[in-house]
Amino acid sequence: MKRKQFITSLIPAAAAFHPLQVPAGNEDRPTESNAVIPAYLKKGDRIGITCPAGFITAEDIAPAVTKIKEWGFDVKVGNTVGKKDFTLGGTDEERKQDFQQLLDDKNIKAIMCARGGYGSVRIIDALDFTKFAAKPKWIIGFSDVTLLHSHINRNFGIATIHSKMCNSFPADWKKAEPIQMETIESIRQCLEGEKINYPIVPNSNNKTGNASGILVGGNLKTIESLGGSKSDLVTKNKILFVEDTGEYLYSIDRMFWNLKRTGKLDHLNALIIGGFKIKKGETEAEAFGKTLEEIVLEKVNEFKYPVCFDFPVGHQKNNFALKCGVRHSLKVKPLNCELKDITF
Description:
Strand content: 15-25%
Distance between the termini: 12 Å
Radius of gyration: 19 Å
CATH class of the largest domain: Alpha Beta
């Protein structure tokens, strides 16, 4: 039996040992060796699309629906697509019910969040993950969806996919840049269990070394906001990746101090820094005086684990899919870095 099939066959038994809630602060939960990987998709499987956060129209998700069908999958468009409650994709109750229906539907093999924005935190505590834990499926998205990745990893130890969402699929593929096509194709690769090669550019600020561990992380501001909650990210013995957008350097510095002061940097196996779109200060007098690399290295200088900068993940075109909650190896060398899923 292939390793991939063997892991999938263990899902029902492994999921049964995952408590539905873990008290905040419990960093000893044994997710290192028993992470549950949902079944990889095959042609004909169905993917649900929903809006747990910001609103989006049916017209805007049409390119994603077309591409998913081209991949050979069926699509079920959730009831929240096209709904709007100010900035949200419907009321809290509508978004909760839509997500819950897709969680419970045994014919849905993966759930793609249509877009990020804000709003998942307003429904997370009302969701019932009982059926999901018994028969896991892939949850797909990034940015605000970092909450779902962290919550699911902490409480159930089930793998999820951090990637672009429906609003990132180009309307005209003939005009799409190669990097756009590659990153969107990486979603399919994750869903079908294929290996992905990440194009990581050299950065002289990298801290070299080798590491392995469960990959966790996402949007840094969202991770900070989860502190002390049932969805708080556990980083001990993990490979942590972070990214963010539209933040001043002083705000990024503050968030990294939060990671340091809460102990999230203390026992990492490795740290990956993705894309950070820096918000410029209004005047020269407001300049913070440190680069992103200086901010990060200042916080991890005492630790020996490897650090990789400029990883292709974040609010940018080169935002490749990553499997959260899955064991990876990371090799950081002077001239290149290499991240690999080692569950195969």
